[in-house]
Amino acid sequence: MEPVTISEKEFGLFRDWLYQHVGILLTKNKMPLVSGRLAKRLRHHGVPSYGDYFRFITGPDGEANGELQVAIDLLTTNETQFFREPRHFDFLRERVLPEHPPGRRFRVWSAASSSGEEAYTLAMTLADELGDAPWEVFGSDISSRVLAAARRGLYPMQRAQQIPLACLRRYCLKGVGRHQGAFLIDPALRKRVSFQQVNLNASLPKLGEFDVIFLRNVMIYFNQETKREVVHRLMEYLRSGGYLIIGHSESLNGITDRLQTVVPSVYRKP
């Protein structure tokens, strides 16, 4: 089958559909990304064009056969790493945790957890500081594929480079046999972390209140109105006095006045 080129009209179909369902707005320069990530699916199904593939996934059989979710997974997966933007974890350790009432369960939500690196970084930080005290980390993402990888907690060894040596020794296991060249998050730590598929651009499930919500490096894909809606939804799950932490390149200016700026990229609910 010859390589197929995506047209602007076909790209517009995927752009509008993704925005409507997930809230992510793809700019025109993302045409190669859409084309490249979906090309194998066209070949897999023997579909002659991107327009035909779009009609296939949005038709009556698209959700039933799982292809709709495959397309969502391919178009929403973003790069992440362990201990990314480390100052946020320093803030958690030095400012947030010392304020926490002893004995009350400490809950953190990694709201765009991708393949789990952020959630497990949070777990390592909490395990270091709180030990056996009651705490938990909840991770969510729109992509079922990356969530499956997060639950496994198995990563290529090169991703260990960002993990401090003490944490690597304490919370990670070197892969052997068929897992040689990889490392596994220690099962005792994985028990403290749960993952669930959540669309931040839709009604959220009942999750309880959180002391801290990490919403980092995902709002860059949203327009202003979608940012407002997502932050408004998340605030209902943030405990009074709790913190919302976003990426260093992001801001809540013009998004909400219901949160107080603590330091750049860190906000607190009164």
Care to describe what's here?
- With 270 residues, this protein is of the alpha/beta class.
- The protein has helices spanning 8-22, 31-45, 50-58, 67-76, 87-99, 117-130, 144-152, 165-171, 187-190, 224-235, and strands spanning 106-110, 135-141, 154-156, 172-174, 182-185, 193-197, 210-215, 238-246, 260-263, 266-268.
- It folds into two domains: 8-76, Chemotaxis Receptor Methyltransferase Cher, domain 1, CATH 1.10.155.10; 87-153 and 189-268, Rossmann fold (3-Layer(aba) Sandwich).
- Strands 6-2-1-7-8-10-9 form a seven-stranded mixed beta sheet, covered by helices on one side. It has a three-stranded antiparallel beta sheet with strand order 3-5-4.
- α5 (87-99) packs across α6.
- The longest helix is centred in the first third of the chain and has 15 residues, at 8-22.
- The radius of gyration is 20 Å and the shape is globular.
Number of strands: 10
> Whole-number radius of gyration?
20 Å
Rounded mean pLDDT score: 91
Question: Helix count?
Answer: 10
SSE arrangement, N to C: HHHHHEHEHEHEEHEEHEEE
Low-confidence stretches: none
- Class computed from helices, strands and strand pairing: alpha/beta
